[in-house]
Amino acid sequence: MLAFRLLRVLIHLFRGLATCALLFPLIDDAGRRAHVRAWSVRLVALCGVRVRIEHLQDAQPAPRALMVSNHVSWLDIFVINSLHPTRFVAKSDIRSWPLIGWLCEKTGTIFIARGKLRDVRRIYQGLVTSLHAGEHVAFFPEGTTAPQGTLLPFHANLFEAAIEADVPVQPYAVRYLDANGRLHPAADFVGEMTFVQSMMTILKAGGVTAELTVLPIIDTGESSHRRELADAAYDAIRSSLGVDTAGNPPG
Does residue 75 surpass a pLDDT of 80? Predict the structure, then answer.
């Protein structure tokens, strides 16, 4: 059964490669976005993950916003893309991942090298340009994945792009649950775990529900400094996930 599920995922990945290489050059942005969304929905389903969308206080995705989310797994990108296609800022390491790295690059992922100030400035300008063009743009302000039940401090640098582009910040909270509503350990992608190991763990687990909560937008007009925006987004996501600043469930 596991081998069959893995084979189906691999076939789907190769279909994605073929679509990016052969079809994407021939279709417009709207067509590419539709393919990215449909492909992401299928990938998540093939991994045995069901997506559930929640809306806190009836919040809806803003048509133009800088999107931020906590970061648990490589799955986060495709869970969010199953709601609407988005350009992500991701670690440059992902580019070297088998198949997925090339797919991410061809679907508009913006790669950033850790610890390089010049790279941050380049990415920042690219974010502003994309936001002005009306694209959905997202990044993970923790800068890396964290175990579920934990929320790492947010880096504030890239929040400046929302201020310059004059768009709000749209926070999302993502978590992965088992059949009993508890955090599912199979989703954690931390430490020295490789992409392949994570994929196999998720395929073996089954019964995972990805809960994606759309949180109310944060108006950049009310917060003129990137640190204020980062703190407001942190507090909104922390509250939704039910963790305190130490990463532990509040007592």
Answer: yes
